[in-house]
Amino acid sequence: MPNTLTAICYITDYQEKSTNKDLIIVKAAGVTRLRNSNTDLSVLLVAFYSTNKSDDNLASFSTEDVLLVTEKFRIIILSDIVYLDIDPVNLPKSTLLLNMTAVTKEAFAINEDHATISLTVETKYYLDQDNVTQEFECHHLVFAKHLAWVSSIVKKGSTIYISGELLLVEDTFVVHLRNLNFFEFPKSVNMKAPANLS
Fold it and tell me: Over the stretch 135-176, which tens digit does the pLDDT of each residue have?
């Protein structure tokens, strides 16, 4: 599953370019106001549209629109757009919602304040055909029982699915966890005697 970010974004610039493969590439710049920051975050968005409008899965948008966007993390390719009828002057502060698959670098730890539990995880994805590794510090409150029972059995090297709020703290990516799950793999199937489907 690709890592995805969801954010509310105000579009400040919009450029469209046609290709020779019946494709229109839209590059847009915008800003989002983060709940945990006093400064706006600049974002760059890329969307692909077919010249045959009936093939498009993405809603169209333009400069000065306010959108709820979902995109692949770090690859900035839009995968979903919802137009919001909001005056840009009233652009709300919101969260960057992050969904990702990650591998734990170490077992969970209770922080010195005894109020939070932390995990360090890393995720891998492809960017321009290169394998990129990104590290995240993940935290949740000790009294969040729906998370504590899962994080308490996490081991180094566990593959987990994470959903949470992405916070940008100086040069570090910090995730305030909202959901944390292990993957369950199906039991192996004996293929020596395949079923007859005719």
Answer: 889 999 988 888 888 888 888 988 899 999 998 877 778 899
| Amino acid in the structure at residue 124 | K
Position 130 in a domain: yes
Residue with tokens 């306010």: 66
**What CATH number did the domain enclosing 83 receive?**
2.40.50
pTM over 0.85: no
Q: Are residues 168 and 102 both part of a single domain?
A: yes
Q: Which of 34, 36, 14 is nearest to 25 (CA)?
A: 14
Tell me which residue range forms the domain holding 107: 96-182
The reply to whether 62 and 135 lie within a common domain is no
Task: In whole angstroms, give the CA distance from residue 188 to residue 57.
Answer: 36
